[in-house]
Design goal:
Elements (H helix, E strand, L loop, with lengths): L6 H20 L9 H28 L8 H5 L2 H22 L5 H26 L5 H8 L13 H21 L4 H17 L7 H5 L2 H29 L2 H7 L6 H12 L7 H16 L10 H8 L1 H22 L7 H27 L24
Helix pairs in contact: 1-14, 1-16, 2-4, 2-14, 2-15, 4-7, 4-10, 4-13, 5-15, 5-16, 8-10, 10-13, 11-13, 12-13, 15-16
Length: 391
């Protein structure tokens, strides 16, 4: 079995979800009201990114280079979940703006976001700096300011957080400019930029985009993340607020679940490029079904999936650290460049369990302590319930 076989994902992912389910039994309830399917989707996305980085790490020990996986399946497990992360942020915060006609007090809003992101992130930064202390003051400042810094220690996940922070900073302005159906203008601009980039041959994130220069790379990145990433999430928020609820209830029916599952697999089946317009629109269908409350045959409503979603932020910012430490320790006694893929994946299953436990501890000891008490979801109150489907 090659290390790039999808089989380990489908064998080990249920194991990690099961571990989260066990932890859900011993951990006290968070007391926060959240949209269960959306929160569970967040956990599934974070876990999928971990599996992508497992394959990246394997080839890192072969070549010494941290590059995307040389396979469509694991290559999708990095960008695909990140796209859904951006959809989630765009949808949730645009929904809150629609519900309250804006973010309210701007500084209170930013303080709330800081309490949510900063404490756990700074813990991860301290760990990274302890593991790789030879850093300049400039690099340390980059870490502290959420600026993207390439580091195999944490799998270079900080670039997505930078875009999240920028989105929070610009949210009042975006809402003022594109409130209501004016969001269509926002997406039309993104589509026009995408069309112009496509005419130059840039339809997906590839080395060609990087080599094209700083301007082209920046335009492509901003258009992808802000234009389609947050933008599609914002559009879905508008539709969710304006379209009759009975239409959304139709999409919630489990007999229609094969439709979002097909669109979830479509980027791999059709070899769609990462962060391409096609990938964004294919995954938007998946996202619409989840927003409607489709729980993928009960999976997204399970306590185990919800628990993984609850600790997903801590998991996302620390899984690379756990992977780095465990893989280097393993490599000391069993060189990864020579071990059979089955043995490597067996060890990675243990690493995944450790990562889930570390994320759970970080969530309950740090992240949760700084959250606003009694935080509520701005959408779908009827979805704020957990139907336990895992015994």
């Amino acid at each position: 079995m090659p290390v790039t076989s999808p089989l380990p994902y489908f064998v080990l992912a249920p194991c990690l979800i099961g571990v989260a389910g066990i932890l859900a039994r011993v951990m006290p309830p968070s007391g926060r009201q959240l949209n269960v399917p959306l929160e569970s989707l967040r956990g599934l996305c974070a876990m999928s990114v971990f599996f992508s980085h497992v394959v990246v790490s394997y080839f890192y020990f072969q070549t010494g280079k941290w590059t995307p996986p040389p396979t469509a399946f694991y290559g999708f497990l990095g960008p695909g979940p990140v796209i859904l992360f951006f959809f989630l942020s765009g949808f949730l915060f645009w929904s809150k703006c629609l519900a309250h006609d804006g973010v309210g007090n701007y500084w209170t809003f930013l303080a709330g976001r800081a309490r949510r992101l900063v404490p756990a992130y700074y813990v991860s930064v301290v760990i990274v700096l302890l593991l790789s202390p030879r850093r300049s003051l400039g690099e340390v400042a980059q870490w502290l300011l959420f600026l993207p810094t390439h580091s195999v220690v944490n799998a270079s996940v900080t670039w997505t957080l930078m875009f999240e922070v920028i989105f929070y900073l610009l949210l009042p302005l975006l809402f003022f400019l594109f409130k209501g159906y004016r969001i269509g203008i926002y997406l039309a601009i993104a589509a026009a930029v995408s069309w112009m980039l496509a005419r130059q041959g840039f339809v997906a994130f590839t080395p060609a985009v990087v080599r094209a220069g700083v301007v082209t790379f920046t335009v492509f990145a901003l258009n992808s993340v802000f234009g389609f990433g947050f933008g599609i999430g914002m559009l879905v928020a508008v539709l969710h607020a304006r379209v009759p609820k009975r239409w959304w209830q139709v999409l919630r029916q489990r007999r229609l679940t094969p439709i979002p599952l097909f669109f979830l697999a479509a980027p791999v089946l059709f070899n769609v490029g990462p962060y391409s317009a096609a990938e964004f629109w294919l995954l938007s269908v998946v996202f619409v079904f989840v927003v409607a409350g489709n729980d993928f045959f009960g999976f997204l409503s399970s306590k185990a999936a919800f628990q993984l979603g609850t600790v997903s932020y801590s998991f996302y910012i620390t899984h690379g650290i756990v992977l780095f430490v465990c893989s280097h320790l393993y490599n000391r006694w069993f060189p990864i460049s020579t071990v059979p893929s089955v043995e490597y994946w067996s060890w990675m299953g243990i690493v995944g369990v450790i990562a889930v436990c570390v994320a759970t501890v970080l969530y309950w000891t740090v992240e949760r302590r700084f959250m606003q008490p009694h935080a509520k979801s701005a959408v779908s109150p009827e979805l704020i319930s957990i139907r336990a489907t895992i015994p």
